[in-house]
Amino acid sequence: MSLIFNLQSLGVQFGRIRALKACTLRIAAGERVALVGSNGSGKSTLLRALHGLVPPAAGSLWADAQARQAMLFQRPYMLRASVLHNVALGLWLNGAPWQPAREQARQALERVGLAELAGRNARVLSGGQQQRVALARAWALRPQVLLLDEPTASLDPTAKREVERLMAEFADTGMTLVFSSHNLGQVKRLASRVIYLEQGQLIADLPTPAFFKGPLPAAAENFLKGELA
Ligand SMILES: Nc1ncnc2c1ncn2[C@@H]1O[C@H](COP(=O)(O)OP(=O)(O)OP(=O)(O)O)[C@@H](O)[C@H]1O
User: Fold this and answer.
1) pTM of the predicted model, to two decimals?
2) 219: phi then psi, degrees, rounded to nearest 5
3) Longest C-alpha distance within the chain, in Å?
4) Taking every annotated instance into account, which residue ranges of this chain make up the domain ABC transporter (predicted)?
5) ipTM computed for the complex
6) Among 225, 193, 189, which residue's Cα sits nearest to residue 211?
7) CA 93 – ligand 1 centroid, Å
8) Which residue CA neighbors atom 26 of ligand 1 most closely?
9) Nearest C-alpha to atom 27 of ligand 1 is from which residue?
């Protein structure tokens, strides 16, 4: 499998806060990697570093420049404009002329089952619908790598299932997924590999069945017990 990311002793710092410390990690094409850990453990920072949004303060981060990336956030940003416009704009900003961008946006909305909402103001959609628009916006770019920061954190169970279903379908096409989640059921359903972070350090990095079977380092065991309680 070809390598998508190669991190060697990566450190990321915000002023005095060391958000990531000496993270060494390789991610290959087609993997489905879940990042888990307590609040503030560095999951978002790692995702943002992978996407090139925060610079390394130490070590190195290599990302395959040929592998197009898209990133989804917990609360997607929607312009006060139609759903179609929001999706088309993503394509236009990536260099597509406006008319083809609108056509591709329409196809992407069909892909996520939201074609009938194309003309609706994106700001008035529910959280679950907005997240699906964000998935359409990402899918329209045909990324090889999709990074998702707690994509279902604020969604109800139905919307959560819908977003999970789309994530699984995208992964089935060979897309590499790296996502953070506090939902261990979701991690079991979607991930092939689980990385546990604590205070900016990678404490465990295992295939999903091995992660849930254990044994894990004590900190990770305690986290799991707490989350499953
Ligand atoms: N822009 C920033 N400026 C300053 N400190 C930051 C910034 N972003 C993150 N941090 C700090 O870096 C550390 C890691 O935060 P991060 O958001 O990566 O954790 P997380 O695991 O994603 O947490 P959560 O589960 O709450 O989303 C925390 O101490 C956080 O306060």
Assistant:
1) 0.95
2) -60, -40
3) 55
4) 5-224
5) 0.97
6) 193
7) 28
8) 39
9) 39
